[in-house]
Design brief:
- The chain has about 230 residues and is of the alpha+beta class.
- It is about 35% helix and about 15% strand.
- It has one domain: NADH Oxidase, CATH 3.40.109.
- The chain binds 3-iodo-tyrosine.
Length: about 230
């Protein structure tokens, strides 16, 4: 049975009830070939900041969110909410609020060291991607959950869980042919207000999704080599 055939309800306190897991083993050659193909495909992913207004297939975005929601999470509590925003008026509202904060950040709040780190990326306070991209996914962390008696109950490893889910979302979108950006307006409390989210949810990132604009440019980045990011013992 697929893990998503039943609606989920909190499993807190329930006994361990294992079920068999017997996935078919992938032949070695197929595994090696698939890993190399994925590595090359993922190396083509770029963070895009200039989007075309062309619409994206709704199914692709929904399937990518469903992929993200398969992420592992602390105590399998799945402490995330993905808000899909297509409404241009809401996107304009988000852009106006984000740009107001970003202007303060770029005018000095970030500090010289941070601004120097960002310089090679060419970012500034103007956030056209928030209104040009046809879809935004705003990801919220559920900092806690509410028990049946209305009391606050703990969620565990929320940052890690939501970070993994966002990584999986970006991967799914890229492998499905869409471009995206992980944008973290700061501070981003306004997102909870604009999107009317409950008290236990805290905005984690805004992910504009679409196709690159015809004249899209990206910074000339170099990735660390495998040797630079990996060591063996
Ligand atoms: N939130 C700002 C600044 C910014 C910070 C980092 I760290 C980046 O990698 C990119 C941007 C912005 O979105 O412009």
């Amino acid at each position: 049975m697929s893990p998503t055939t039943q609606p989920w309800t909190p499993t807190h306190g329930q006994p361990y009830h294992p079920v068999p897991y017997r996935p078919e083993r992938m032949p070695r050659a197929e595994s090696v070939a698939e890993a190399a193909r994925l590595r090359a495909r993922m190396d083509e992913r770029r963070t895009v900041r200039q989007f075309s207004a062309d619409p994206v297939p709704d199914e692709v975005v929904r399937d990518a969110i469903a992929c993200a929601a398969t992420a592992p999470s602390g105590a399998h509590q799945q402490p995330w909410t993905f808000v899909l925003v297509r409404d241009p008026a809401v996107r304009r509202q988000i852009r106006a609020a984000a740009e107001q904060e970003e202007q303060i950040s770029y005018d000095g709040r970030l500090g010289d060291e941070w601004l120097a780190a960002l310089r090679p990326l060419g970012t500034d306070a103007v956030k056209t991607h928030l209104t040009d991209a046809p879809a935004l996914v705003v990801v919220f962390q559920q900092r806690y959950w509410l028990g049946p008696d209305g009391t606050k109950r703990k969620h565990y490893y929320v940052d890690e869980s939501v970070g993994i889910a966002v990584g999986m979302l970006l991967t799914a979108l890229h492998l499905s042919g869409l471009a995206a950006l992980i944008h973290t307006p700061s501070p981003m409390r306004f997102l909870g207000h604009v999107l009317n989210r409950p008290e236990n949810e805290k905005a984690f990132a805004v992910i504009p999704i679409g196709y690159p604009a015809d004249d899209c440019q990206v910074p000339d980045l170099v990735r660390k080599s495998l040797d630079q990011v990996m060591t063996e013992v």
